[in-house]
Design goal:
This protein is mainly alpha-helical. Helix content is 51%, strand content 3%. A two-stranded antiparallel sheet has the order 1-4. Helix 15 (355-377) packs antiparallel against helix 16 (391-416). InterPro entries: PLipase_C/P1_nuclease_dom_sf (IPR008947).
Length: 417
């Protein structure tokens, strides 16, 4: 049995840890007509330190409420140790670091004042090393980030577009005991349950994925799959967003909302809500058992097939969204799926307590048909964008329509609170 579990761990370690590659571009399309005939709200840019300094007492209370909720919802979560908890007596010079540690996020996150220019435009560019601590910058090198000044007035849509991408910049890196960081030893998350702890970007995996509907036998043999934390982050940042709006800090109200939306959008991606779409529990167990006795081909084939389709849909989505925005091709079927406002695409936000039954179950159920449709396309990897009528756009449009409707529902609920 121990050998089997170790084998499952290795299998899950092997999968690529992706989500929607282009949160900012997707969110730009979602918000393009979100306020319709009304003017887009304007906000005054404010540093994180300024916000924290003015709302010390309220932040301490808000984080305590969020922790209480999370400890009841997530039995695998351990309490934050007392020395890490945010205090209203914290000196101003230590506020940002203390805040990060109380949230149990990467203490080196920069929270720069910036926007991601979607679409690209001129301005004072922000160097990437002032935005992220990532060693491997990946597709961020393709994007344009512009510096902001405290007190500057910008649109709420610009804040949200930028913030939905931000958690992938390093917010959840190196938080586990085996990630080789100092905070990993004191945050209390234990060893990284899945994803490769030796790979930089993979160290964030358990915060951006949520497996809630796997067969019982899989959870029985691989209980570590339950050790995920996106709900923890969504609750933390939602409560902070509400606090910021209540206390007159709309810039941080929208920015924290964007951070929360990142994790919600991740959970709309079927490969983030299902470990192995279209692979039955029996087959998962079978390939593990034969691999234990030396037959690796069945497991390797399964990994290659599924990770290939996972990579394909992510890569294709990234380049397609960029192209739609650059060319202003709003009539493209995928753009229409994202910007649609029909009654059929309207849902009401049911709250974080029902996230699994609404957002995650929908994504999990979409996993099998999506994976089969992608396999039938017989496209081994991304190489080019296809004509609008190509069936890959039907697949992608369906998935991103779900992302869009849940993003809108969340924002509508946030405004009404």
């Amino acid at each position: 049995m121990k050998q089997f579990i170790v084998s499952v761990v290795i299998l899950v370690f092997t999968f690529p840890i992706f989500s929607w590659n282009n949160h900012a571009g997707i969110t730009y399309l979602i918000l393009k007509d979100h306020w319709k005939g009304k003017p887009t709200p304007k906000v005054k840019v404010e540093s994180l330190k300024s916000f924290l300094s003015k709302e010390k007492s309220s932040i301490q209370e808000t984080l305590s409420i969020s922790e209480e909720w999370a400890l009841k919802k997530l039995p695998h979560l351990t309490p934050t140790i007392e020395s890490l908890k945010f205090s209203k007596t914290t000196k101003d010079a230590d506020l940002v670091l203390s805040f990060y540690k109380a949230l149990r996020v990467n203490p080196n996150h920069k929270a720069a004042l910036y926007i991601q220019a979607v679409p690209k435009r001129n301005g004072t560019k922000l160097p990437l090393d002032q935005l992220t601590t990532l060693n491997e910058k990946g597709k961020l090198v393709n994007e344009t980030f512009l510096s902001l000044q405290e007190g500057q007035i910008i649109g709420a849509d610009e804040v949200l577009v930028s913030a939905t991408d931000e958690p992938d910049y390093d917010l959840d890196l190196y938080l586990f005991e085996d990630n080789g960081s100092e905070v990993g030893k004191i945050y209390g998350f234990g060893s990284q349950p899945f994803g490769n702890p030796a790979i930089e970007f993979s160290s964030q995996a358990p915060f951006h994925m949520g497996f809630y509907y796997e067969p019982g036998i899989i959870f029985a043999l691989a209980g570590f799959l339950k050790q995920t934390y996106p709900e923890y982050r969504i609750h933390q940042f939602t409560e902070l967003s509400k606090l910021a709006f209540r206390t007159g800090h709309p810039y941080w109200g929208y920015r924290f909302a964007g951070w929360a939306l990142h994790y919600i959008q991740d959970l709309t991606q079927p490969y983030h809500s299902s470990v192995l779409p279209r692979v039955s529990a029996a087959k998962q167990i079978g390939v593990q058992l034969v691999s234990i006795v030396g037959y690796q081909s069945p497991k390797n084939n399964m990994i290659n097939f599924i990770s290939g389709r996972h990579t394909l849909i992510e890569e294709y989505q990234y380049y397609l969204i960029r192209n739609l925005i650059e060319t202003k091709n709003w009539d493209h079927p995928v753009a229409n799926s994202i910007t649609e406002f029909s009654e059929q695409s309207f849902v009401k936000w049911q709250g974080i307590d029902l996230l699994r039954g609404n957002v995650c179950k929908e994504a999990y159920d979409a996993g099998d048909p999506m994976d089969e449709q992608l396999e039938n396309l017989d496209i081994p990897k991304y190489e080019t964008l296809y004509e609008p009528t190509h069936p890959i756009h039907t697949i992608l449009g369906t998935l991103l329509n779900n992302t869009s409707k849940h993003t809108r529902a969340y924002l509508d609920a946030l405004k009404s609170n």
